[in-house]
Amino acid sequence: YAGIAEEFSKYMNVKTADNLPSTKEQLIAQIGDVDVLIMRVDPKIDKEVLDAAKNLKIIGVCSVGLNHIDTEYAKEKGIQIFNAPGMNANAVAELTFSKMLDISRGTFTANYDVKVKHEWDKYKFVGRELRGKTLGVMGFGRIGRRVGELGRAFGMTVVAYDPFLKPEDFEKENATGMSVEELLKVSDFVSIHVPLTPDTKDLFNAK
């Protein structure tokens, strides 16, 4: 945030929050005369915050998802919203794989056994390799494609679901496009990279 504030201060008056993330109450108290709000995902920008923002014209979100903003009400008030798709794609994809490795090798439990229970049983943690497994990627945008790329580097077969892509779009990325039902049948691991919208809510559920 320091870099963003420094750059914007060349062109306009910039005030930065005393603490990040700000509480909703702090934001409401400060946002009255603000023209541009730069934020990540906290606090939630609801009707109450937007009503307090008398001059707000633009919200810039330093993330991909926008489910923390009442976008419909913002649109009614003429406020434009910009997000940053792709900015953190590699970081998210690497974190995804670190978790897949943790799950496969039982490192959470092994760490707990050693640090808390002070015991070590190496036969308890045989684990599984990712190589040869099928990775199902739900949502094949920038993050999903990078997850697929890392999957191939691990020797995994990559299948993917994305209703906005054609079969050749998946083929370009050495993946096979399929429906949610097909993907769930063949995948050993499922990684979800879709924005939270009314259409995607409960896309993946207990059933």
Tell me briefly what this model is.
The chain is of the alpha/beta class. It is built from nine helices and seven strands, in the order ααβαβαβααβαβαβαβ. The strands form two sheets. Strands 6-5-4-7 form a four-stranded parallel sheet, with helices on both faces. A three-stranded parallel sheet has the order 1-2-3.
Structure description:
This protein has 207 residues and is of the alpha/beta class. The protein is 37% helix and 13% strand. The protein is built from 9 helices and 7 strands. The longest helix is centred in the middle third of the chain and has 17 residues. The two termini are 41 Å apart.
Strand content: 5-15%
Q: How do the helices and strands follow one another from N- to C-terminus?
A: HHEHEHEHHEHEHEHE
Distance between the ends? 41 Å
Which parts are unreliable, with pLDDT below 50 for 5 consecutive residues or more? none
Number of strands: 7
Could you estimate the helical fraction of the residues in percent?
25-40%
Which of globular, elongated, flat, extended, rod-shaped describes the shape? globular
Spatial strand arrangement across the major sheet: 6-5-4-7
Helix count, DSSP H or I runs of 4 or more residues:
9
Structural class: alpha/beta
Mean pLDDT: 93
